[in-house]
Design goal:
384 residues, Nucleotidyltransferase, domain 5, 3 domains, six-stranded mixed sheet, 12 helices, 37% helix
Length: 384
């Protein structure tokens, strides 16, 4: 079949596995495919919730640079409340509000007739064979989705079927035929207003998430499919990955550094440190430096110096801190001062001395001294 530019996209979910932080996880992957250009976006989520379904659309529209006039689906529960006669559907209220906001029409396949959206199903098969095998490795879901986005962009170099241009060139042409993006996105998140407890956490549903705020502070929390956003005084102060378990504590060591600076003995064995280790955020080089600092200064003072370095990492970036620690250890130094210097050396001002114009050097030449006067002194000595 032939499709006009900007008219139709097909949307579907599929299941895939990835190793996130060393743990094998089964994920739900949202896929949107343009039927004219054959470009596609793949985005992984922990659950195929309606929230994730709608967020996938918004990410897809931004990826393609506009909105398709028609999106075609299976009869998935995120969009369809009830299947009526023929192609008539009773849609969910939230999905109606969503596609009204983005100004596209929804069409649904006949139950059991998967060939009616063969484009997106074929795309899933290709992408699975080429980008999900072998099973991808990633630090976390965000890292995995960056890999998937890079794979989608790499696939823009493909030329599919009898098309005369590659996918990327057709996507550029198609942008002029898409409905322009809305100025504001659709409100996807669920909002609540918890209060920070005595342990520096906010409770969202059954789980607790650490925040860098004092106990008793009221915050605004937006619950999204992949993360939760914690807002205070107009700023997003924390954005942890959303936990779909129950009665869990998601603790970020960074949020406890100020307390640990005063009470360094609490660092070893703390739950936030354990979680950082599990997430790969506490490399082996940190342990080597920490042990050296404790041997040199004692357990309390050495741990305090380690915490002070972590505070610098919060300021300058933990990637740079890790590089500074590893560079210091490679040079045979386990001194916190050396790490501080390496971490901040790029920002130090090193004024260059001004070059002086001395002109032609011959101007500094002087005649050789005349020594005849010394001969006269010798003669005077003989006379005496």
């Amino acid at each position: 079949q032939s499709y006009a530019l900007g008219i139709e996209a097909q949307v579907d979910w599929y299941e895939a596995q990835a190793d996130l932080g060393g743990e094998r996880q089964t994920l739900q992957v949202f896929c949107m495919r343009s039927m004219a250009s054959a470009g596609s976006l793949h985005r992984a989520f922990f659950r195929s919730t309606q929230q994730a379904f709608l967020e996938g659309h918004e990410l897809g529209f931004r990826y393609f640079g506009g909105v398709f006039r028609v999106c075609r689906y299976d009869n998935l529960s995120s969009a369809v409340k009830k299947i009526l006669r023929g192609r008539e559907r009773e849609e969910t209220a939230r999905f109606i509000a969503f596609h009204s906001h983005w100004k596209f029409a929804a069409e649904f396949c006949t139950p059991g007739e998967g060939h009616e959206k063969g484009g997106v199903e074929g795309e899933q098969g290709y992408f699975r064979r080429n980008h999900w095998v072998p099973i991808p490795q990633a630090r976390d879901l965000n890292d995995l989705n960056e890999q998937l986005l890079s794979a989608c962009r790499a696939d823009q170099g493909r030329r599919i079927g009898d098309r005369k241009q590659d996918v990327g060139a057709l996507m550029v042409m198609e942008r002029d035929h898409l409905v322009p993006l809305a100025e504001e996105g659709f409100e996807l998140g669920e909002v609540c207003f918890p209060i920070v407890d005595s342990k520096g956490c906010v409770k969202v549903r059954t789980n607790r998430y650490s925040v860098p705020l004092r106990a008793g502070t009221k915050v605004r929390v937006i619950v999204l499919p992949a993360c939760i956003e914690v807002w205070h005084e107009g700023k997003c102060v924390a954005r942890p990955e959303r936990c779909y378990g129950r009665q869990q504590a998601i603790l970020n060591l960074e949020h406890y550094l100020d307390v640990l600076e005063r009470k360094p003995g609490a660092l070893a064995g703390s739950t936030p440190l354990v979680q950082w280790r599990e997430q790969g955020r506490w490399p082996e080089s940190y342990d080597r430096l920490w042990q050296s600092l404790m041997r040199r200064h004692g357990k309390q003072a050495g741990t305090r110096e380690m915490v002070e370095l972590l505070l610098l990492g919060r300021q300058h970036g933990y990637g740079r801190l890790r590089q500074a620690v590893e560079s210091a250890l490679e040079m045979g130094s386990s001194d916190a001062g050396a790490v501080r210097y390496l971490l901040t050396a790029e920002g130090l001002e090193r004024p260059q001395p001004e070059l002086l114009d001395v002109g032609v050097l011959s101007r500094y030449e002087r005649p050789l001294p005349v020594l005849a006067g010394y001969d006269e002194l010798l003669s005077a000595g003989d006379i005496q």
